[in-house]
Design brief:
The complex is a heterodimer of chains A (about 350) and B (about 500). With about 350 residues, chain A is mostly helical. Chain A has 16 helices and two strands. Chain B has two domains: about 230 residues, P-loop containing nucleotide triphosphate hydrolases (Rossmann fold), CATH 3.40.50; about 260 residues, P-loop containing nucleotide triphosphate hydrolases (Rossmann fold), CATH 3.40.50.300. Chain B starts with 5 loop residues before the first strand and ends in a 13-residue tail after the last helix. The chains are: A mainly alpha (about 350), B alpha/beta (about 500). At the A-B interface, α10 and α11 of A face α10, α11 and β18 of B.
């Protein structure tokens, strides 16, 4: 048997060792599941986690999938640092796509350079306004933001379905639930011509570094951290909790909206009912795996992006369901939360003869 | 002569840095209502926890009905026949009275016919409670009755009541006394913890008075005046005004409170009732009082963590500030040191440098355009550490790595060095060693000498008498008229602390 003993301090080693341990455990557990399914475990884990990197355009696809995860993970890390538990980024992502997509659809023939920035701003606004509903409910009625933000995520999905099957459906689209294609101008420029490498892949790391600076070096970042670590001290210092809730929701929602508009303009070119494979929820894992540190969120976002590619690779090469993406993500979060115990506790092994404490 | 119900001999309990019980003896006879008197921090709670099995003594013996016992846990204490009603109740608001009582019973068999037994007991002891009502709807007095009924169901021989009347209205308290007398007459002894002297005199047949971990007197309360009890309870060896600083040159009023009234925000909070006070530059005003009489609320109302409503209720250097939060009050020259260091005055998980920034960023100009000036912040933290001799590795050390006294020096230093117009300190030297306390006292005196108005809220009367020019007492949310320290006698302050508001007008009354 073993027992857990409080360390009495925060282990820096395990703060960063825990995600790595969690990843190794997850790979082992996934391998065991594959073996149980009668698959060769090593080959399957290789196909899932390694092979996508060497596939044609593997790195480009990785960057495209990582961009929304990093953008949203960064926004969440700021909010979570302040103990503001926005878990509805999926909905804010969707509203960003709807607002940005709506702006693109409203300007089908415009060719000005200003169209794309306008589309991006519309997307940010959409995500931000949607998140501010949550901030308003919390500050005005003390409603728990975990519940309200999650419920609003489902409302957003149905709003999207309504729009693309109803008023915004492409009249030339043979009845498919999709809008007309956006104009090339509204889709924005590419990092490399003739690829779908949109500028979100540049924006994501830049914003991550900016957020790292804000959190560590500015008064605003300091206020977020104080509110999260000692709310009473924040009040003592005169930092307004309500103001910080509004701001952190606005930032995390705005970045989710930005992720959404980059996704639909950059990779899809139209709105459909399935614009996100759960990026908003995966971003929560990214935020925690990156230790709520915007600098750590970049590698975490890349890793979780890999699980999406791995799911596709396993489906194509091994004929498995791409549901293993979700399974892998779930096991990873589970292992991470478990391994995080080591940050505050040490494991003490004891002789089995002893009585349990 | 029968054997006493409970006899404690030479109980010692040592906590790190604090001898909570120093060879304490206590004897409770059958049928007796026995008062345990003492200031906060006198060691009452520790002693009671030892009797109830929550804490185990380092030394000493416990005789229960003449037999030596080691009380291992509260459940063991209850089996012996010891029940306890805590000051703060542990009830589930969403459940009914009967459900709450059922949850608190150790033995599942006790739950049989519980509802009927509750009705029977509550009727026979004059403790009306309806077993089917949800706790949510009940008053504080009714909730306390639930806790008492819960204890009585187990037929206790000793009932411990921890400051039971602190949450009751006078009428509810009267009802409680009737019940307690009745219980005692039927053979259940009562250990009654309080610092309300009149109450103890009226109710209790015997009293043990503690101070600084030791028993300082055992007496029959009815034979003593409240004044005598107060002087035993509060350190009698207090030296009035030793090494007084020269009488200050009093300047203009810098802090003014005009009929500050605040409704308590929580069930266990204290409402502030029309508090008025004027503190001038160069002056130190001490506010004495027993914990929980509104000190926390007063501190929050002064610092702006709770807004006082009308702007004119609080004037800082003549400017209305009642409607301003902590940030704007600092702008007007107010600096504050709250009682609780951990998580209130300081963020323990952050560095000293970050903690310096916490409240000093405005007056210390530690940021520019919203960006933290790390160099200035570190320099400021280092200067506090140097001037106040804070024992630490440097500005990068985490606040929680410091001892309580060193962190307190840092927090006091953080505010004092901002050159405030008004400084309010709650418990300046709580849990601080003598050397650090001296440093803090010197800093406070120097600040006042430089022209600041200083308010000290403290339970330590030595400290209050030593530092203050005038002394006021807060009791049940009301602040007494401040008296110059030369005219303040220990007895008078002690009586005011015990809640006798008539003390100054009619001392002969007691």
């Amino acid at each position: 048997m073993f027992s857990l003993q409080p360390r009495g301090y925060v282990s820096q080693f395990w703060s960063w060792g825990s995600p790595i341990l969690a990843l190794l455990l997850t790979a082992a557990i996934a391998g065991a599941i594959f073996a149980f399914m009668g698959r060769p475990p090593l080959l399957t884990v290789y196909t899932f986690l390694i092979s996508p990197l060497f596939a044609p355009e593997g790195l480009a696809n990785l960057a495209i999938k990582a961009a929304p995860l990093i953008l949203m993970g960064v926004g969440l890390s700021l909010a979570y640092k302040a103990n503001v538990w926005n878990i509805g980024t999926e909905g804010q992502f969707t509203l960003g796509a709807i607002f940005g997509g709506g702006a693109a659809l409203a300007l089908p023939d415009a060719t000005s350079w200003a169209v794309f920035p306008a589309v991006l701003i519309a997307g940010i606004t959409g995500g931000m306004l949607y998140a501010l509903i949550v901030a308003w409910l919390r500050t005005a009625f003390n409603a728990n933001e975990i519940l309200t933000s999650l419920m609003l995520a489902y409302i957003a999905q149905y709003l999207l379905i309504y729009l693309v099957t109803g008023p915004w459906r492409d009249p030339m689209g043979f009845g498919y639930p999709q809008t007309a294609m956006f104009s090339d101008t509204a889709d924005g420029p590419r990092v490399i011509e003739a690829t779908n490498l949109h500028f979100g892949i540049i924006a994501a790391p830049v914003i991550a570094i900016l957020a790292w600076w804000i959190l560590g070096k500015t008064s605003f970042g300091f206020q977020l951290r104080v509110l999260g670590q000692a709310p009473r001290a924040a009040r003592f210092a005169g930092f307004s909790e309500n103001r910080l809730v509004w701001l952190s929701m606005a930032i995390s929602g705005g970045l989710a909206g930005l992720a959404g508009v980059f996704e639909v303009t950059g990779t899809q070119g139209q709105l459909t009912t399935t614009i996100s494979p759960g990026y908003g929820f995966t971003a929560i894992i990214v935020a925690f795996l990156g230790r709520l540190n915007p600098a750590g969120i970049i590698p975490a976002g890349l890793l979780l992006a890999l699980t999406y590619l791995g799911g596709d690779a396993a489906q194509i090469n091994l004929g498995m369901s791409n549901a293993i993406t979700g399974i892998f993500q779930g096991i990873l979060l589970f292992c991470l939360l478990g391994a995080d115990v080591l940050i505050l506790y040490r494991i003490k092994w004891r002789k089995s003869a002893g009585a349990r404490a | 002569m029968t054997t006493p119900l409970l006899q404690l001999n030479g109980i010692v309990k040592q906590y790190p840095g604090c001898l909570a019980n120093d060879h304490v003896d206590l004897t409770i006879d059958r049928h007796q209502i026995h008062a345990l008197l003492g200031e906060n921090g006198a060691g009452k709670s520790t002693l009671v926890k030892i009797i109830y099995g929550v804490v185990h003594p380092d030394e000493g013996s416990i005789l229960w009905q003449g037999e030596r016992v080691t009380i291992t846990s509260p459940a063991h204490a209850r089996r012996l026949g010891i029940g306890m009603v805590f000051q703060h109740f542990s009830l589930f608001e969403a459940l009914t009275v009967a459900e709450n009582i059922a949850l608190g019973l150790d033995n599942p068999k006790d739950r049989v016919n519980l509802r009927d037994r509750i009705i029977k007991i509550s009727a026979s002891y004059g403790l009306p409670v309806d077993p089917d009502r949800t706790v949510h709807d009940l008053s504080v007095g009714e909730r306390q009755r639930i806790e008492i009924v819960r204890c009585l169901l187990q037929n206790p021989k000793l009932l411990i009541m921890d400051e039971p009347t602190s949450v009751l209205t006078p009428k509810e308290a009267e009802t409680l006394f009737t019940t307690l007398r009745r219980l005692a007459s039927e053979g259940c002894s009562i250990l009654y913890i309080s610092h309300k002297l009149e109450e103890v005199r009226a109710l209790c047949e015997a009293a043990t008075i503690m101070r600084a971990g030791r028993v300082v007197a055992q007496c029959i309360p009815a034979e003593k005046t409240a004044r005598e009890l107060a002087s035993i309870m509060i350190s009698a060896d207090l030296k009035p005004a030793h090494e007084r600083r020269p009488a200050p040159t009093v300047g203009l009023p810098r802090l003014v409170l005009n009929k500050l009234t605040l409704r308590a925000t929580s069930e266990f909070g204290t409402s502030l009732k029309s508090i008025s006070l004027t503190v001038s530059g160069g002056e130190i005003v001490g506010i004495a009082g027993i914990a929980g009489n509104g000190q926390g609320e007063l501190m929050d109302a002064l610092s702006g963590e709770i807004l006082a409503g009308k702007p004119e209720t609080v004037l800082l250097d003549g400017k209305p500030a009642g409607h301003l939060g902590p940030y704007d009050r600092r702008k007007l020259g107010g600096c504050f040191v709250p009682e609780e260091r951990n998580g209130h005055g300081a963020v323990t998980t952050m560095s000293l440098s970050e903690n310096a920034y916490l409240s000093a960023h405005l007056r210390g100009a530690l940021s520019k355009l919203g960006v933290i000036n790390h160099r200035r912040t570190n320099t400021y933290a280092a200067s506090i550490i140097e001037r106040f001799d804070v024992r630490t590795t440097g500005p990068a050390a985490l606040a929680k790595s410091l001892s309580g006294g060193n962190l307190q020096k840092f927090l006091v230093g953080r505010e004092v060095m901002l050159d405030p117009a008004v400084l309010v300190i709650s418990q300046p030297t709580w849990g601080v060693d003598a050397g650090a306390a001296l440093a803090i006292h010197e800093a406070i005196i120097a600040l006042a000498a430089a022209g600041a108005a200083v308010v000290i809220i403290s339970q330590d009367l030595d400290e209050i008498f030593q530092l203050s020019d005038r002394i006021a007492v807060i009791a049940a949310g009301t602040l007494s008229e401040p008296v110059p320290v030369a005219e303040a006698s220990l007895e008078r302050i002690g009586l005011l602390m015990g809640g006798s508001h008539t003390a100054s007008e009619a001392p002969a009354h007691v």
